[in-house]
Design brief:
The protein is 43% helix and 16% strand. It is α/β, with parallel strands linked by helices. Helix 8 packs across helix 12. The radius of gyration is 19 Å and the shape is globular. The N and C termini lie far apart (64 Å).
Length: 338
């Protein structure tokens, strides 16, 4: 093994060890930045221990809204929503298992959608006992949130999915639609990467460039925010993110919808769902919204003009307005303070 690769591997192992250490550690730099523009209204918290630990950021008061990010990302992807809705909602954004400061399970089985949903269920029961929450997810977080709502509708009052179908519908599209297979071919490449390859090929850097460099260049993210997303993409965090694909996305030609779907083939969330898509997003086929209607009691769809895959923050005003209307807020936003 070359010296630079050995150093990278040791750095990755050290990063994972620090994540698994005691939660009595310095404030997340992303939280420091958020509070610098939010009058210090938000705090970080921890749920669970070791590899099972969930790091989260919370603020506000009122009915609870839980946010789940996708890949490659972390809780800060919801910064605009946290700020917009904390005045009238209790908002909580998690680092999903494997991401940023949350624990990184060392067993691939821990990243299966069913196991992730069980961990999310325990988290919701801890932070909002006895309450039916609003659940909001983006990308992989949206697929998980939608599948969780299919499995535990009694825990969810309403669901908003940004740029994501439920997991079972994604598998159906990947199994039956050649156009979706083409769009999702990167998932098979992700599955083939191990930690050594991630370090050797500098996949963490390449992912940041592909996902965030343009956002910084366009002024969607500040340079400081871009650096926070880069810091969150350590090789070990990327490896954990790849486990979401390794654990849940078989080779497309081998998908068995009866065996691989979760919670069930053709499952349905028995509640109201909002699906927010970006006009420029090419992650899913255009038929996604029409196909998703069978997976909710009622489905509202919103397409954000000029927006790609990063629907929570490419046009935060439009994203917040769509979510605010779905929450039933007057004019789509929290009432102004008296």
């Amino acid at each position: 093994m070359r010296g630079d690769r050995l150093i990278g591997l040791l750095a990755s192992v050290l990063s994972a060890a620090l994540v698994a250490a005691s939660p009595a550690q310095a404030e997340d730099p992303a939280l420091t930045l958020l509070n610098a523009t939010s009058a210090g209204a938000f705090r970080q918290g921890w749920s669970g221990e070791g590899e099972d630990r969930i790091h989260y950021v919370a603020g506000g008061s009122g009915p609870t809204v839980v946010f789940v990010h996708g890949f490659p990302s972390f809780w800060y992807a919801w910064r605009h929503q946290l700020q917009a809705f904390a005045p009238c909602r209790r908002v909580i954004a998690i680092d999903a298992p494997g991401a940023n400061l949350s624990g990184r399970p060392g067993v691939r089985e821990a990243y299966r959608v069913a196991r992730l949903a069980e961990r999310l269920d325990a988290f919701i029961a801890e932070v909002a006992p006895g309450e039916k929450i609003t659940l909001v997810g983006h990308d992989w977080g949206g697929a998980l949130a939608w599948s969780y709502a299919e499995w535990r509708p009694q825990r969810v009052a309403r669901l908003a999915a940004f740029s994501a179908p439920p997991f079972d519908l994604f598998l159906e599209l990947a199994a039956t639609d050649p156009a979706q297979r083409e769009r999702s071919a990167y998932m098979q490449r992700f599955r083939a990467l191990d930690l050594e390859a991630i370090i050797a090929r500098r996949v963490d850097s390449a992912l940041w460039t592909a996902a965030y460099a343009e956002m910084v260049a366009r002024g969607v993210l500040t340079a400081q925010e871009g650096a926070l997303f880069r810091s969150a993409l350590s090789p070990s965090a990327v490896d954990a993110g790849m486990d979401w694909y390794r654990a849940n996305v078989p080779p497309f030609e081998t998908i068995d919808l009866d065996r691989d779907s979760w919670p069930a083939r053709d499952a349905k969330a028995e509640l109201s769902v909002l699906l927010v898509e970006g006009e420029r997003d090419r992650t899913f086929v255009p038929e996604l919204a029409a196909r998703a209607r069978a997976h909710a009691d009622t489905l509202q769809t919103v397409t954000l003009p000029g927006v790609g895959h990063w629907t929570p923050f490419e046009d935060p005003a439009a994203a917040n307005a769509a979510l605010g209307r779905f929450l039933g807020l007057p004019e789509g936003r929290c009432p102004a303070a008296e």
